[in-house]
């Protein structure tokens, strides 16, 4: 195999193809060597004594998990939380798991987590929400104003 190196395992050998890490992905956490683009911005907005909005923009995956967990924790302290994903272009299973974990923790504190997802069904985040059935578990809105109204109830 061209462009590879041989790794020995006893009598057997395995050819490992070498690829440039930057040729594989455009998403922040996909590249273990850290050469991918940085995660998108995260904004916390306290909209009332009982509710806050965390807005995610750009790509979010394993590289931004820690920052998102911190943002969710700060924003949700004593408040319901609306996570606005309308400007988010990519989430992976790490972020889906974080959203579900955050929802469970908030339910233990009698608080709510709800989502806003772009209504364009061709968008990556909308497809992930649809395919994984997230809207069946986490209340989901098609606009920020609808989400804020829901939290005010």
Structural description of this entry:
With 153 residues, this protein is α/β, with parallel strands linked by helices. It contains 4 helices and 7 strands. Strands 3-4-5-6-7 form a 5-stranded mixed sheet, sandwiched between helices. Strands 1-2 form a two-stranded antiparallel ribbon. A hairpin with a 2-residue loop joins strand 1 (4-9) and strand 2. Helix 1 runs parallel beside helix 2 (93-108). It is globular. The model is unreliable at 5-25 (pLDDT under 50).
Map the helices and strands.
Blueprint: E1 4-9, E2 12-17, E3 42-48, E4 51-60, H1 65-76, E5 80-91, H2 93-108, E6 113-116, H3 124-132, E7 140-141, H4 144-152
Parallel strand pairs: 4-5, 5-6, 6-7
Antiparallel strand pairs: 1-2, 3-4
Helix pairs in contact: 1-2
The biggest beta sheet is recorded as: 5 strands, mixed
Quickly give the structural class. Answer: alpha/beta
The fraction of residues in strands falls at 25-35%
Order of helices and strands: EEEEHEHEHEH
Number of helices: 4
**Mean pLDDT over the residues:** 83
Low-confidence stretches: 5-25
Q: Tell me, what's the shape?
A: globular
How many individual β-strands?
Answer: 7
First-residue to last-residue Cα separation: 63 Å
Strand order of the largest sheet: 3-4-5-6-7
Radius of gyration: 19 Å
Estimated helix fraction: 25-40%
Structure, briefly:
The protein has four helices and seven strands; from the N terminus they run ββββαβαβαβα.
Quick tags:
single chain; 153 residues; alpha/beta; five-stranded mixed β-sheet; two-stranded antiparallel ribbon; 4 helices; 7 strands; 30% helix; 31% strand; globular
């Amino acid at each position: 195999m061209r462009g590879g190196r041989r790794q020995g395992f006893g009598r057997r050998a395995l050819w490992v193809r070498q690829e440039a890490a930057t040729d594989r992905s455009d998403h922040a956490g996909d590249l273990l060597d850290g050469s991918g683009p940085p995660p998108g911005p995260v904004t916390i907005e306290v909209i009332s004594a009982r509710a806050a909005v965390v807005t995610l923009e750009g790509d979010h995956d394993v590289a931004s998990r820690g920052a998102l967990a911190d943002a969710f924790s700060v924003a949700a302290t004593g408040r319901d939380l609306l996570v606005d994903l309308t400007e988010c272009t990519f989430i992976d299973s790490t972020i889906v798991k974080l959203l579900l974990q955050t929802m469970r923790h908030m339910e233990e504190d009698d608080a709510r987590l709800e989502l806003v997802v772009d209504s364009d069904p061709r968008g990556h985040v909308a497809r992930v929400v649809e395919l994984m059935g997230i809207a069946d578990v986490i209340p989901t809105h098609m606009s920020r104003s609808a989400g804020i109204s829901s939290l005010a109830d």
